[in-house]
Amino acid sequence: MSEPVLATHDLRRSFSQGGVTINVLRGVELTIRPGEIVALLGPSGSGKSTLLQAVGLLEGGFEGSIRINGVEASRLDGDERTRLRADTLGFVYQFHHLLPDFDARENVVLPQLIAGATQDEAIARADELLTRLGLAERLDHRPSKLSGGEQQRVAVARALANRPPLVLADEPTGNLDEKTSDRVFDAFIELTRQEGSAALVATHNERLAARMDRVVRLHEGVLS
């Protein structure tokens, strides 16, 4: 059996507020295999975003083990964690966070250039992904000229541009109406599967969660 793309063991995160310790994560155990798409369900405030921040290596303060592609993240210094994140992870957020002064193609090209791709390689890859997402006629449009669903599809293309083994998505359609949400989610799942990436998708939408390979639920800081 192939090595997990993500494995956490006894993952914990606490915050102090007003002299009171709040235990958000209480020993999370999670394993995701290559190509597996997993729904992370839980109500608002349950710690879904905190868990994604932990496995996304976006902030410190966590206890326990996080292994990404077999690499133990807790043993890495800041630069090494940044490199591991860049090499192995893609991110899709509820709000697209596209660069407003760049068009759709440029938003997908930029992370590839940062990762070391040539200009020609990055443009070809951006055009390929955006075309597969139905945006062939919108390549040179800036975010302000795109609909909410189109903006989020650009964000999906950007997340997959560097062929990450694992994509982390935090309520990726939570800012869209139901019809647009379904279309964007369908595009996200289809493209992620085609690319062979695994994904951990935080959502509170049971209907969308049921369409993924597996569902885990975060409750009182632990997964079930």
Automatic annotation (TrEMBL):
Keywords: ATP-binding, Nucleotide-binding, Transport. Residues 6-224 form the ABC transporter domain. This is ABC transporter ATP-binding protein. Transmembrane segments: none annotated. The keyword Nucleotide-binding applies. PROSITE patterns: ABC_TRANSPORTER_1, ABC_TRANSPORTER_2. Pfam families: ABC_tran. Belongs to the ABC transporter superfamily. InterPro entries: AAA+_ATPase, ABC_transporter-like_ATP-bd, ABC_transporter-like_CS, ABC_transpr_LolD-like, MacB-like_ATP-bd. It comes from the Bacteria. One of its GO terms (molecular function) is ATP binding.
